[in-house]
Amino acid sequence: MKGLQIEHLEAGLEAKIILTDLNLQVPAGEVHALMGPNGHGKSTLANILMGHPRYTVFKGTITLDDTALLDLDVSERARQGLFLAFQYPAEIPGVTVSKFLKRIADLRPNPPLNASAFLSELKQNLAFLDMDPSFVNRYLNDGFSGGEKKRMEILQLLTLQPRFAIFDETDSGLDVDALKIVAAGINRMRGPGFSALVITHYRRLLDLVKPDRVHILERGHIAASGGFELVELLEKDGYEGIRRLIGTTT
Ligand code: ADP
Ligand code: MG
Ligand code: MG
């Protein structure tokens, strides 16, 4: 089991409470989807998990395997193997993709043994993402197209090899090719030591990722959990359908 465990979380933005008694488990080896209406706290949860300094935890616990996350700052959480998909520097002048990825690889508990081991791993990842090897000599985010930014994000994921990853609407506005890259990256990471929370409004990513479980976050807590049938119900009847299913009304 282990993986990510959130218990009785009460948290929000600065002094404002947004999440109330939120309980969620993402066992090691599983990929879960998190859906829910806009403004109900999904991004708040992602930011709380990453340790964003503007967000406040009032009550509750979050553990990743045996580590209490709430005691750790952002960089300590990254070192513990947490990855937030939208979190990467906008542009770093003078730092190449290769240099940046090397730094990320060195954060791992099992960093590459030497420069040539790193480069051969990087080559494999580039081939997997169907990218030209010369990409790694470019400066970080300097003139990257939308598709290149997305590939860069997935390169970071494959390089960090995190224990837990959060994708916060990383599929919004993507064309089909970019969507396939994101899904392929997540699916490549799948395995006993990896779990993830995929926040999305759309079925099209979930059709490719095939989540082990689906949660609906509404009014600051997990209102329903189930299998892919929740995605189908949502597509058919919207959140009204989910409320009918669990017997709540607006
Ligand atoms: P979701 O990701 O589910 O759309 P959010 O976690 O972004 O929801 O937002 C939860 C609540 O926090 C909303 O009520 C929203 O109005 C509020 N909120 C989000 N960002 C800010 C902000 N920068 N300043 C003030 N309130 C915010
Ligand atoms: Mg939103
Ligand atoms: Mg959001």
Automatic annotation (TrEMBL):
<dbReference type="InterPro" id="IPR027417">
    <property type="entry name" value="P-loop_NTPase"/>
</dbReference>
<feature type="domain" description="ABC transporter">
    <location>
        <begin position="4"/>
        <end position="244"/>
    </location>
</feature>
<dbReference type="GO" id="GO:0005524">
    <property type="term" value="F:ATP binding"/>
</dbReference>
<keyword id="KW-0547">Nucleotide-binding</keyword>
<dbReference type="InterPro" id="IPR010230">
    <property type="entry name" value="FeS-cluster_ATPase_SufC"/>
</dbReference>
<keyword id="KW-0067">ATP-binding</keyword>
<dbReference type="Pfam" id="PF00005">
    <property type="entry name" value="ABC_tran"/>
</dbReference>
<protein>
    <submittedName>
        <fullName>FeS assembly ATPase SufC</fullName>
    </submittedName>
</protein>
<dbReference type="InterPro" id="IPR003439">
    <property type="entry name" value="ABC_transporter-like_ATP-bd"/>
</dbReference>
<dbReference type="InterPro" id="IPR017871">
    <property type="entry name" value="ABC_transporter-like_CS"/>
</dbReference>
<comment type="similarity">
    <text>Belongs to the ABC transporter superfamily. Ycf16 family.</text>
</comment>
<dbReference type="GO" id="GO:0016887">
    <property type="term" value="F:ATP hydrolysis activity"/>
</dbReference>
